[in-house]
Amino acid sequence: MKQIYLDHAATSPMHPEVAEVFSQALGTVYGNPSSIHGTGRVARKALDEARRIFAGSINANDPEIVFTSGGTEADNFAIFGTAAKKAGKHIITSTIEHHAVLHACEKLESEGYDVTYLPVDENGSVRAEDVKNALRDDTILVTIMLGNNEVGTVQPIAEIGELLKDTDVVFHTDAVQAYGVLPIDVEALHVDLLSVSAHKLNGPKGIGFLYQRKGTQLAPLLYGGEQERKRRAGTENVPAIMAFAKAVQISLETMDQKQTAYQGYKEIFKNILGEEGVEFKENGTNQMPHVLNLSLPGIEIESFLVNLDLAGISASSGSACTAGSIDPSHVLVAMYGERAEELRNSIRFSFGIGLSEEQITEAAQKTAQISKRLALK
């Protein structure tokens, strides 16, 4: 039985062309980009070309791209780096952020910072008006994610950015889940900092970047060499960066095609559940095309996921970064409250490369069968 992988929001398989670039680079581009000899210059050229691709993908300038080990480091760099540079002790975020943001904010709270956690509506959306109302004279940072990793809701980042663009408040967005799926223009969004990770868009794990708008001051997290214009010490992971750049090129070239396919997968999935008489509710609105989060009344998520896995379907109950946790999804708690049934019966299906309409049909049919069987118990 071949597994149908529907957990691309957790991580994605490396694209074959990306894997080829990665493999070749491991054996051939081994120089230190900071070295002045020919071997080092080959690595530096590869690094510069990748930086150009990343900058172009979000309408930024090459020097505004800082390589990191992934989304978590990029988020931490944005938050702690801003806090160390700005005078003021107030930060605004939301209750549905990734834990890389929430736990960083909690750490700052323990050091005397005041953090406002904005609520979301039942669709999982932050209100720009709430951001405006939460602003204070000592606010230094607003950090709101672009697209939620659990329910897929796209946040009003451009609207919030418009509110903040003429202020001294730094605006950061975690775009890890949205990058490569949605078009992103940092000028249109008016963001100062933006976090990205490669493994969400068929690149290697352990590599990402932070967009840092020119003039936005950050204190470094790491101390050592003078790499990345003294912003991020440590020899750059050139093979991973080259592979990441290839993944970005493929994502940009296929974005429209992917969006159409994933929206089609959603409709197939929901139509089959409806035809099978399965009651369900979709969590969230204005979603990214690859995320489908469904509440299925009458089931318990743990046993449901086990049965799906036995049937050859990989899905999840939310963020993979909290795997094994018995706590309910903080995103669903924020949307529905601590006693809501959705906390116990919601499942996330997320789409990516390697899928077909036939596989989605099979997965939806098996989901319907399991749902009806478990609901009878």
Automatic annotation (TrEMBL):
Keyword terms: Iron, Iron-sulfur, Metal-binding, Pyridoxal phosphate, Transferase
Cofactor(s) the protein requires to work: pyridoxal 5'-phosphate
SUPFAM superfamilies: PLP-dependent transferases
Domain named Aminotransferase class V: residues: 4-360
E.C. number(s) listed in UniProt: 2.8.1.7
Reactions catalysed: (sulfur carrier)-H + L-cysteine = (sulfur carrier)-SH + L-alanine
Database matches in Gene3D superfamilies: 1.10.260.50, Aspartate Aminotransferase, domain 1 (3.90.1150.10), Type I PLP-dependent aspartate aminotransferase-like (Major domain) (3.40.640.10)
Superkingdom, taxonomy of origin: Bacteria
Signal peptide: none
Pfam families, alphabetized: Aminotran_5
PROSITE patterns xref list: AA_TRANSFER_CLASS_5
GO molecular function (one): cysteine desulfurase activity
Similarity comment text for this entry: Belongs to the class-V pyridoxal-phosphate-dependent aminotransferase family. NifS/IscS subfamily.
Name of the protein this chain belongs to: cysteine desulfurase
Organism: Planococcus glaciei
